[in-house]
Structures are given as structure tokens and as C-alpha cells.
């Protein structure tokens, strides 16, 4: 909107300078007046709106209405003559605060002349108890009653603000606080608190005034009833007679802080009083002077609280202090209502000044408005004439916005402000419009008409193919422009259109179409049609405008016949695909275009008929006439529109649709009723053939197609089956949570969660209704049987997937349940819980039973679902309810109760019949829990593991489902196995320390030992009937098994318990030693050694020759000769003492003398081993001192020479040979080979 910039440019010229100055002044005044008028209007409307409120609202209001006090003020003003009201507002305002009985009204009566004014028709307003208003000479007093003063509610605050804001926004009032002087004489301590409260209440009202005035409020304090104070009348009369004013002014805050000495300046006049007053009156006056400090001291307390600093409000200024009495003769020494304005100053106030200023401003504003309109109109006329002249001289190529705004009507329409300005130049504007229309015809329309006329005469009759929309007064057409002739007709219609004729109205309704047809700016066509008043002076050369009859718009009838025949064929189809319908609608669009083109031509005929009334008689338009055609039949047009509006739209298949959405949509589609058409049948005759089409049959075909396509899209969309199509939301049903009370972390383990959609509730609420209703709906659909079968197969697959996932959820739920007892006490707690009717195990089993026990009825889909629940049949059998009991599960409960009782039983006494069970001695050492574990380890028939398994087999619980029932038994087994393991360790330690450990310090187990092992000790440790083996068989044999001649650990369930580390090595070593020392009957077996003598050494010259070597153990001896040696057996009866020796027999060369040299050991049970100690390098073969370091017994030995000797050992003794030559003695080696290591059998693991 650029009105103001244009007006400013046109107006800001040197010629208009005086007018500019006047306009600025007038504009400022107009703004001021407008603001004042707006203020008063708004104020009056608000007041009227408040008064118009219903009475019911006032009754319902809890406190004082906000406008109650303002209404009293208005009532007061109504009583004042209208001409006097402005003067009254100029009076000085006083607001009086005081308690009831403080003398407010009497003070106003004595110190204002309001009653005299009332007698002169200037009444006050004293009838309303809420507020009294007194009109005096030069003053206006508002008396605030005690009730309103004490009211600290929000309602009172709003009412006071409503009253005071308009009065004191610019004129500041004076507050007069009235206090009863007699009350200040009291000595009661509660009175100071009373003064504090009154000061705070009054301060609140003063704060409202300060908020309005934005500055501190001046306060005057008046003490009334002073005539009742002793000596005050005498004192005041003395001052009056002496012309001494009783003026108590406060010029600073310190003066107000302490006013107890405010009468001290008057003490200097007491001497005069003594001279002028009688003695009794003088004494009374002096008494008043003496009592005044106490009186004013209490008043200081009141002033202090009144002026207490507050950051949220302005502190009032206490300016004056007045002492007043009720006696007339004591009346005004000083007047608390003395105005600051004199009578002369009030008379100088002109109450009508504002009205005169407002009237002058309005007059000046009106004059400025008219001047502005005149000069602006004149400037516009000049500008338009200049632009028109420039335009006529230059001829702009394009019709743009600038040309558009030259039209006066357009300018006024685009600038709404111009509508309120008077038009001083109407004829000139009309002439400008006429010139503008002439210009448009001359430079835009007529040249275009000449161009089209020439084209029409030279070019053939060719269709343009433009799509347009034409709106006549009662119809709408959408068709194609046929050729140039049509465009000429439309252009002629524009040239002869006026704003008043029918052509102009038609063009105004179809501006866009005319612009599209003629390729002319829409804005130019609109301007011409809206502003052209006459085209009578337009001259056209009729010779250039020759019209002919238009070619027919009917296409080949054969194509229409093919179209109608194809539709007849589709009517017979059971299903219409989307592509088929799209092709049909494309063809329909083409044929509708033909009909619309003909209708468009009819409009051209109508325009030509209207042009006949406007164009010169030389232009012949009679050739443009309407033609008849079969396609004009209304049934044909209606049928094409019916087909065009057809669709096979169906609901979109989205991720959240599911079977519920499918079912709802199918029901809606079944109940779908197409929009009724006017014709029940489309019956028409075309090209000699009769066609009859039923809209209902077509709608039925479309509905069948919609349903079939919808079902196919649904199946394709959900082709990746997940079984969840029954549920529109995954949060509809609550999940089943295992061990929800302890979160599966305390003893009863497992925190499995079953999706709420896999519950019986979900089946009954969602799955069953769908599987009951959906197949019925599918069977009732008007679609092909193959489509129904296709969807039914899809539904079966979805049910099967859902059933498998359902079973998997409960399978996982079942398998995740477990128990964990970390101590025997925890196990007892677990067992005590499991035998309860509400045990966690029963809850799990009941949950599975309740949710897998589904009655399929006769529903084939549910029957397929139930097949997946067959694996849970054993739970149904276990939880079979018989009159409130569960016989099968109670058997399991009895086993657990018995196991709990066994665990809680004290250790069995030794006197129990030991023959009735295996390993009674070992069991007597075990705790009850350890005995249960040992029975499981030993696979005893009556172990709880076998008992529970027998029960599980009896109720046909499959092996993979048994773990949940065996869990408490296995927990008992593991806990007891730890105790068994401890007890085995104790037994073995005791046995080893008693029988095996003593052997380590005796010979031959330790070669360096000086003490031989006794036969009894060896019998006790190695004899099969000895203490070691008897204890082992009674206590430890269940945990070991013999593989050949070696002992191995017997593996129990889960490879527990563990054995002591040295048990098996020691056991194998003792077994080997026992087999050497004892036979099967436990009788002593002599030690047997296979020995082989080595060749004797060669004889030295002149020395005896060694002829024989031997080794002897008791009665058994082996000889060695200088011949091929052989292995011979050497026996040693270790259970009896025997002596052992090794020796050599020497013979002289003549063999006449034989000499023996031997190494002998005393008789002992281990003489042979003592003899071995005396061999050369005995320390090297002293193998029992070597630890086995983990090697097998009997495999650690070393030859004399320190090298491996295969499976025999070579032993050498050094024997001193006899000396005969006198050269001294020498030694020879007597050497024997001994198979295996003789010490190996005595090597025990340490």
C-alpha cells in the first residue's frame, strides 16, 4: 500500500508550503483530540458495562463491588449543576481517615462550610454509609468510614483504586488523619499495639494514593475532643486572646520522630498568661502544658508506625499537626482543611478551556482533512494527466502495475483511505478513465484483433488444444479452444464489454479464462471490463472479419462404440484390476473432453449472440450456430461423469492394521452404500445401438474389486509372518513375570517374562473372536473362491506361527525356573516353600497349565493352534484338579517333605542296624544332608534322585522337562557333597597319619633311618586285614575304583566330591607294597630278587685268585663263578630276622689254600637292604631318600655308574683281597645285577 508515499510526494512542494505547515499543526491536534475522545468513550463504555452486569453476579460476589465507590462519586456529580462541575474538580481534595467516634464528621462540620453550600444548591453527598463527600468553599472532602478503613480485602483495594485513579492521577490530595485526643491519655499498654495497627491500616490506604500519584502524600493529623483535656480550653483561649497562633508544623523527619516537646516554644508565654488569666484558669493552662509531653509521646508512636520505611511504597509526609475541640468559641485557631488555593486563583481557572481547545482542534482537523483531500486529488489529477500523455506518446509494450494504478477507480479500490476522502474532480476523473479505455483499445485490443483477423484469413481451421474453464451465470464449462475464430469472438466480446452490459459481467466472472484464451494480461482485462462505459465509437472493418461455421467436434463414432462395448464387457467380470480401471478412466477423460469441447462451443455461440447486439451490422455472426449430436444426450454425459467418478480406493494397509483393522474395514466395505445417482439406469441409443448400464451393478463390481485388492495387499504386506497380527498393540495385555516378588534373584531363580500377547486372556479377547468372526466374514465376501482360499491359507500359517511362538514362550518360561540354595539353611527354606500350596513351582506349573489349556471347540484354526500345546500335556496331568487337590503333584510334595524331614533330623546313633545299609560306619560320620548326597553318589535305590525319577517316569514327564523337579534334589546333592568331601578329607588324614605317616621315618622306607620298620607296623599298614585296608574298605572305597592293579577316582554325578590330592598315589603305592609283602590270603610273602653274578676279576701276579663270589640272605645263597652268568632267585623272609652277607673265596695258584673274604650285616628283618647299603656308591642307590616328585612308584632307580641300566640294577661291593707277596693288601669288586629296583617298592608318596 503506497498511498501515503504518493500523497507526501505530491503534497511536499514549495507551492503547498503554507498548507503543509497547517496540515502538520492540524494533524497534531487531531491526534490529541482523537486520544481524548477515545479515552472518554472507553471510560464511559466501561462504566456502562459495569452497571449493566446482572444483579445475580453482584449477589454472588463475596466482597465490595469494584465500582461501588466510583458510583457514589458519580451520584455526587449528578447533583451538582453541570456548569459548576468543572470548577468543583479544580477544588483542593481532602481525604479524612479516622475511627468511629473519633469526631470526623464534627471536624468537617466545624471547619468547612459545606452546609452553607448545600443551602445554595451545591449539595454534598452524605447519604451513603460507604462514602460521604462534602463540598465546601474551595475544598472537597471525602470521609472514609471506619468500616471501609478497616477493610483490607482485595475488593476494597479495587474499589478505592477505581474511585481515586481518575481523580488523583494529576491532582494530588491531602490526607487528614483524625485521632481522639482523649484516647491518648490512657496508660494501658495494649493501647500502643492498637495505635500500631491503626497506623498500619491507614498506611495501606495512603500507599494506594502514593501508587496513583507517584509521589509522597502529604498528611495532616488532627486531635479531636481536646476540649475534654484538662486545661486545653484555657490554653487555647489565652492564645486566641493574645493573637498567638497555635501552629504545629514539621519541616523535617527529625521533628516528626519526637513531638513530645512540640509545645515547649509556648512556655515563654506563661508569664503573660499569669498576668492576664485568673489564677484557676492559669493553673489549668499550666496543667495542660505539663501533661502535653505524655500526650504527644503516644502520638509519636503512631507517627513512627505510619512512616515506617517500606521499599514497596512511598513514605507519607506528615506536614501539620492540629489540636481541635467541639466548642464553637474554640473553633478555628488553625483549620486542618485550609486550602492552598485562594478564591481569586480558583476564579481564574477556566473550566471550559479543554472543551474550547477540543472544538478548535476538531474544526482545524476538519479543515485540514478537506484541504488534504483537495490538494491530494488535484495532485493525482495532474500526475495522471502527465502519465497518460507520456503513455500515449511512448506506448509501453507491457501493461504493468503502474498503468493499472492510473485508473481512478483502481486507485480508490487499492487505497481504502481514499474512500473517506471527498472527490472534488469527478468529471475530470471520468474523462481520464475514458481516455485510458481508448488507449487500451487503440494500443492493445485493436492491434490484437487485426493480428487474429489476418491469421484467421490465412491459416486453416486448426484446434489449439488449450484447456479453459468458463463460468456463465448458471453453468461451468471446461473445454478446448477450437481455432483462431473462437479467439476473435472472445476478443470482440472484450472490446464491446462494458461495466453495465452482460458481456462485461460474463468477462468479470471468467477473467482467468479470457486471459488464457487471448494471452492478454488478466489485470488489463479486468480494468477494461470494470471501467469501460461505452464502445459505440469503435470502428471495425467488417471486411476483415469473416466468420464461418465451425467444424464438428464429434470424433469417430466407432471409438465411442468400442468404448461402450468395453464397458459392457467389464460389467460381466468378477473383478476389476487397478490398471484396467485406470485405462478406462483415461479413455473416459478423453470422451468427456469431447463433450466439454462441444459445450465450450455452445458458449461461443452464446457470446456471438450477445455480440450481435453490440457490433456494427456489417459483421455477420450468424454462421456461428449450435449443432446437434448424439453425444449431447444427458444419459451419455451422466454415464461418463459416473465412470469418471468411479474408483477402487480401499484402506491403506499399514504396519499397525492387523487382523482387527482388517476385520473392521471388511465390515465397513461390506456395508458400503455407494452415493445414489439420479438415474437408476443409464439408457441411451448411440449409432443405432441401444445401451443400458446399471449404476448399482457397476458399484457392486467396484466393491468386489476393492475387497479383493485390499485382501491381496494385506497378505503381501504381511508376507513375513510373525504371528502377531491378532494384536493392534503390544501393550494391551500385561506380561507374565516369573518370581515377580524377588526379581528372580533370591533362591528361586529365573526372571522369565512372557509377552502378554501369549496368554489365555489374549487368546480369549483377541485371537478367538478374530478366528471366529474373520473366517465367517471372508466366506461372506463377494469375491472369487480362489481369493478366499488364498487368504485362508495365509490365516492358517499365521495361526501356526503364533502357536509355535506361544509354545516357545512357555517352554522358555518353564526351562528358566531354577533354585539356588547356597547353604543347608537356604535349602531347608527352599524345600519348606516348595511344599506350600502357593509354592513358586506350583505357580509356574499353574501358569503354564492355565495358559496352555485352550479349548478349540469346532474352530479349525484353533485346533491347529492347540496342536502346538501338546508338549505341555504332562503339566495338565500333573495339575489335574480332583476336588481341590492335585494327587500327582502331591506325591512330589510328599517326597520333598520327607527329604526336608531327613535334612532336619539329627545324626543317626551308632546303634542303628548297620547291616541294613551299605557303608554304615561312613554314613554314621555324615550329617543328614551328606547322607542324602552320598546316597545319590552311590546310586542307592532309595536315594531321592532315584525316587523322584521314578515318580517322574510314573507320570510320563519327558526327560527334557524333568530338571525343574530334580532341582531341589541336585541342590541337596551339591551341598551334601561338600560335606562328604570334607568328611573324606578328615578320614583320609586320620588314616594316613595313623598307618602311613609312621612308615616314612623307618628303614627301609628311609635308608638313612637308624630304626627298622616293625613287622606289626607294616602288617597294620599293608596287610589286607590290617587297619589301613579295613578302614579304607569301610570308609573310602565308595569313592575309588580299581582298574587292573591301579586305583582311580570313581566319578559321581557332576564329578563330585573331590578326593584329597595324595589319596590315590598313596593308595596305589600301598597296594603295590601289599602285593609284594602279602599273598591273597594275607599271609607273608618272602621278598624275591632276581640276581645275576658278574665275572670275577682277573688274578694279579703272585696273588691269590678269586674263584667264587656269593651273596646270601638268611638260608638263601647265590654263587658266582667265572663262567657264563645266569639269573637266579634270592629270597629273604622279611617277617623273620636273618643275616646277609656278600663274599669272595680266594685260592692260591696251586689251589692248596682257600681264603674267604666277606661283608656281613647282623640279623634283622631287612638284612638284605642293609647289605645293599654297604655297596660301593651306596649313597647313589639309596633311593628311598629321594622323593617321588610325582613319579610312579618303582620307576625311580639309578645304576651304580649313574647311567640307566635298562630293567636291572648293577650293585658293586669292594672286598679286600688277601696279600701274600708282602706288598700290602688290595681290594676287588664283587658285582651282582639285580632286576628292577629293590628299593622301589618302599617308596611312598609324601
Strand content: 5-15%
Structural class: alpha+beta
Overall mean pLDDT stands at 80
CATH architecture of the largest domain: 3-Layer(aba) Sandwich
- Distance N terminus to C terminus? 115 Å
- How many structural domains can be distinguished in the coordinates? 6
Runs in which pLDDT lies below 50 for 5 or more consecutive residues are 50-61, 461-482, 909-915, 1178-1205
Radius of gyration: 67 Å
Q: Sheet with the most strands?
A: 7 strands, mixed
Q: Kindly identify the CATH topology of the largest domain.
A: Rossmann fold
Task: Kindly provide the name of the CATH class of the largest domain.
Answer: Alpha Beta
Specify the helix fraction band.
Answer: 40-55%
Notes on the protein architecture:
- This protein is of the alpha+beta class and 1246 residues long.
- The protein has 6 domains: 1-82 and 349-398, no CATH class; 91-348, Rossmann fold (3-Layer(aba) Sandwich); 431-565 and 585-624, no CATH class; 736-885; 905-1077, no CATH class; 1088-1242, no CATH class.
Amino acid at each position: 500500500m503506497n498511498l501515503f508515499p504518493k500523497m507526501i510526494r505530491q503534497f511536499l512542494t514549495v507551492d503547498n508550503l503554507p498548507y503543509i505547515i497547517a496540515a502538520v499543526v492540524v494533524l497534531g491536534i487531531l491526534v490529541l483530540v482523537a486520544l481524548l475522545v477515545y479515552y472518554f468513550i472507553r471510560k464511559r463504555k466501561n462504566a456502562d458495562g459495569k452497571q449493566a452486569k446482572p444483579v445475580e453476579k453482584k449477589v454472588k460476589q463475596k466482597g465490595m463491588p469494584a465500582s461501588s465507590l466510583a458510583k457514589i462519586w458519580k451520584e455526587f456529580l449528578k447533583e451538582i449543576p453541570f456548569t459548576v462541575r468543572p470548577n468543583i474538580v479544580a477544588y483542593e481534595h481532602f481525604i479524612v481517615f479516622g475511627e468511629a467516634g473519633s469526631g470526623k464528621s464534627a471536624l468537617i462540620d466545624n471547619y468547612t462550610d459545606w452546609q452553607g453550600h448545600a443551602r445554595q444548591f451545591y449539595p454534598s453527598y452524605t447519604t451513603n454509609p460507604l462514602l460521604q463527600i462534602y463540598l465546601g468553599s474551595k475544598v472537597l472532602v471525602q470521609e472514609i468510614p471506619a468500616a471501609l478503613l478497616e477493610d483490607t480485602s482485595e475488593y476494597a483495594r479495587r474499589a478505592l483504586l477505581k474511585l481515586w485513579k481518575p481523580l488523583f492521577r494529576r491532582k494530588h490530595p491531602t490526607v487528614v488523619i483524625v485521632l481522639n485526643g482523649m484516647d491518648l491519655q490512657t496508660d494501658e499498654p495494649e493501647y500502643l499495639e492498637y495505635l500500631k495497627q491503626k497506623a498500619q491500616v491507614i498506611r495501606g490506604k495512603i500507599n494506594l494514593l502514593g501508587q496513583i500519584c507517584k509521589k509522597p502524600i502529604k498528611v495532616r493529623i488532627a486531635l479531636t475532643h481536646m476540649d475534654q483535656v484538662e486545661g486545653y480550653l484555657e490554653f487555647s483561649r489565652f492564645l486566641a486572646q493574645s493573637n498567638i497562633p497555635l501552629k504545629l508544623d514539621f519541616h523535617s523527619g527529625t521533628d516528626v520522630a519526637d513531638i513530645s516537646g512540640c509545645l515547649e516554644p509556648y512556655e515563654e508565654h506563661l508569664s503573660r498568661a499569669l498576668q492576664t488569666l485568673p489564677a484557676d484558669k492559669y493553673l489549668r493552662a499550666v496543667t495542660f502544658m505539663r501533661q502535653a509531653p505524655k500526650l504527644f509521646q503516644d502520638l509519636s508512636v503512631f507517627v513512627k508506625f505510619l512512616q515506617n520505611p517500606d521499599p514497596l511504597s512511598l513514605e507519607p509526609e506528615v506536614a501539620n499537626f492540629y489540636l481541635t475541640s467541639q466548642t464553637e468559641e474554640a473553633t478555628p485557631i488553625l483549620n486542618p482543611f485550609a486550602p492552598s488555593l485562594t478564591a481569586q486563583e480558583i476564579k481564574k481557572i477556566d473550566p471550559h478551556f479543554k472543551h474550547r481547545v477540543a472544538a478548535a482542534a476538531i474544526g482545524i482537523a476538519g479543515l485540514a482533512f478537506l484541504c488534504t483531500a483537495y490538494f491530494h486529488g488535484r495532485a493525482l489529477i495532474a500526475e495522471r494527466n502527465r502519465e497518460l500523455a507520456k503513455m500515449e506518446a511512448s506506448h509501453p509494450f507491457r501493461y504493468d502495475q503502474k498503468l493499472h494504478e492510473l485508473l481512478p477507480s483502481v486507485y480508490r479500490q487499492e487505497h481504502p483511505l481514499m474512500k473517506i476522502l471527498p472527490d472534488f474532480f469527478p468529471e475530470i476523473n471520468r474523462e481520464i478513465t475514458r481516455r485510458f479505455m481508448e488507449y487500451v483499445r487503440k494500443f492493445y485490443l485493436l492491434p490484437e484483433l487485426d493480428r487474429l483477423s489476418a491469421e484467421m484469413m490465412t491459416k486453416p481451421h486448426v484446434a489449439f488444444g488449450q484447456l479453459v474453464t468458463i463460468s456463465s451465470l448458471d453453468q461451468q464449462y471446461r473445454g478446448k479452444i477450437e481455432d483462431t475464430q473462437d479467439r476473435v469472438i472472445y476478443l470482440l466480446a472484450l472490446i464491446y464489454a462494458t461495466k453495465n452490459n452482460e458481456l462485461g459481467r460474463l468477462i468479470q466472472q471468467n477473467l482467468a479464462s479470457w486471459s488464457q484464451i487471448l494471452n492478454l494480461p488478466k489485470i488489463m482485462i479486468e480494468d477494461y471490463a470494470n471501467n469501460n462505459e461505452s464502445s459505440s465509437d469503435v470502428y471495425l472493418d467488417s471486411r476483415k472479419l469473416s466468420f464461418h461455421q465451425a467444424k464438428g467436434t464429434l470424433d469417430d463414432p466407432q471409438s465411442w462404440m468400442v468404448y461402450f462395448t468395453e464397458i459392457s464387457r467389464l460389467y460381466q467380470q468378477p473383478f476389476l484390476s487397478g490398471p484396467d480401471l485406470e485405462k478406462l478412466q483415461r479413455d473416459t477423460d478423453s470422451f468427456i473432453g469431447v463433450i466439454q469441447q462441444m459445450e465450450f462451443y455452445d458458449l461461443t455461440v452464446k457470446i456471438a449472440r450477445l455480440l450481435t447486439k453490440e457490433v456494427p451490422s456489417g459483421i455477420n455472426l450468424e454462421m456461428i450456430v449450435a449443432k446437434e449430436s448424439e453425444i449431447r444426450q444427458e444419459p451419455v454425459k451422466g454415464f461418463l461423469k459416473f465412470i469418471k467418478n468411479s474408483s477402487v480406493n480401499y484402506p491403506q494397509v499399514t504396519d499397525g492394521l492387523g487382523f482387527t483393522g482388517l476385520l473392521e474395514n471388511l465390515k465397513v466395505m461390506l456395508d458400503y452404500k455407494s452415493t445414489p445417482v439420479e438415474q437408476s439406469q443409464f439408457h441411451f441409443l448411440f449409432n443405432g445401438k441401444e445401451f443400458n448400464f446399471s449404476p448399482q451393478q457397476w458399484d457392486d463390481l467396484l466393491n468386489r474389486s476393492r475387497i479383493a485388492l485390499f485382501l491381496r495387499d494385506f497378505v503381501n504386506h504381511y508376507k513375513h509372518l510373525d504371528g502377531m497380527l491378532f494384536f493392534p498393540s503390544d501393550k494391551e495385555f500385561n506380561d507374565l513375570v516369573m518370581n515377580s516378588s524377588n526379581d528372580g534373584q533370591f533362591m528361586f531363580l529365573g526372571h522369565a517374562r512372557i509377552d502378554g500377547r501369549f496368554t489365555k486372556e489374549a487368546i480369549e479377547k483377541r485371537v478367538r473372536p478374530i478366528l471366529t468372526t474373520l473366517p465367517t466374514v471372508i466366506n461372506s465376501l463377494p469375491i472369487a473362491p480362489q481369493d478366499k482360499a488364498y487368504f485362508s491359507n495365509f490365516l492358517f500359517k499365521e495361526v501356526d506361527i503364533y502357536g509355535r511362538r506361544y509354545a516357545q514362550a512357555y517352554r522358555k518360561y518353564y526351562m528358566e525356573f531354577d533354585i539356588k540354595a547356597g547353604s543347608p539353611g537356604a535349602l531347608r527354606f527352599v524345600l519348606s516353600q516348595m511344599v506350600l500350596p502357593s509354592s513358586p513351582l506350583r505357580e509356574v506349573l499353574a501358569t503354564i497349565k492355565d495358559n496352555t489349556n485352550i479349548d478349540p471347540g469346532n474352530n479349525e484354526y484353533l485346533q491347529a493352534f492347540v496342536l502346538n500345546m501338546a508338549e505341555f500335556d504332562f503339566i495338565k496331568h500333573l495339575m489335574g484338579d480332583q476336588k481341590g487337590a492335585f494327587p500327582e503333584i502331591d506325591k512330589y510334595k510328599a517326597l520333598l517333605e520327607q527329604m526336608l524331614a531327613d535334612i532336619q533330623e539329627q545324626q543317626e546313633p551308632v546303634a542303628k542296624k548297620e547291616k541294613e545299609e551299605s557303608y554304615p560306619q561312613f554314613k554314621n560320620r555324615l550329617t543328614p544332608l551328606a547322607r542324602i548326597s552320598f546316597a545319590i553318589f552311590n546310586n542307592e535305590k532309595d536315594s531321592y534322585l532315584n525316587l523322584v525319577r521314578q515318580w517322574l517316569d510314573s507320570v510320563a514327564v519327558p526327560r527334557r522337562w524333568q530338571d525343574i523337579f530334580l532341582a531341589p534334589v541336585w541342590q541337596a546333592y551339591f551341598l551334601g557333597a561338600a560335606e562328604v568331601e570334607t568328611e573324606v578329607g578328615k578320614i583320609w588324614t586320620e588314616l594316613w597319619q595313623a598307618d602311613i605317616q609312621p612308615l616314612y621315618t623307618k628303614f627301609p622306607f628311609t635308608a638313612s633311618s637308624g630304626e627298622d620298620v616293625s613287622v606289626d607296623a607294616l602288617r597294620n599298614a599293608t596287610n589286607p586285614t590290617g587297619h589301613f585296608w579295613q578302614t579304607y574298605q569301610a570308609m573310602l572305597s565308595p569313592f575309588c575304583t580299581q582298574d587292573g592293579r591301579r586305583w582311580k577316582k570313581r566319578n559321581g554325578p557332576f564329578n563330585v566330591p573331590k578326593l584329597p590330592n595324595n589319596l590315590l598315589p598313596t593308595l596305589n603305592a600301598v597296594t603295590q607294597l601289599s602285593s609284594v609283602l602279602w599273598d591273597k590270603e594275607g599271609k607273608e610273602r618272602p621278598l624275591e630278587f632276581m640276581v645275576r653274578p658278574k665275572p670275577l676279576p682277573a688274578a694279579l701276579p703272585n696273588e691269590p685268585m678269586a674263584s667264587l663270589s656269593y651273596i646270601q640272605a638268611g638260608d638263601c645263597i647265590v654263587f658266582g663263578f667265572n663262567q657264563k652268568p645266569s639269573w637266579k632267585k634270592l629270597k629273604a623272609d622279611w617277617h623273620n630276622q636273618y643275616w646277609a652277607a656278600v663274599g669272595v673265596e680266594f685260592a692260591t695258584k696251586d689251589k692248596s689254600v682257600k681264603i674267604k673274604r666277606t661283608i656281613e650285616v647282623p640279623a634283622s628283618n631287612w638284612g638284605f637292604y642293609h647289605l645293599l647299603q654297604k655297596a660301593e656308591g651306596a649313597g647313589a642307590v639309596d633311593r628311598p631318600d629321594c622323593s617321588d616328585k610325582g613319579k610312579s612308584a618303582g620307576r625311580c632307580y639309578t645304576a651304580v655308574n649313574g647311567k640307566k641300566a635298562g630293567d636291572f640294577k648293577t650293585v658293586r661291593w669292594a672286598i679286600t683281597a688277601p696279600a701274600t707277596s708282602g706288598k700290602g693288601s688290595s681290594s676287588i669288586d664283587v658285582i651282582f645285577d639285580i632286576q628292577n629296583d629293590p628299593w622301589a617298592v618302599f617308596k611312598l608318596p609324601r
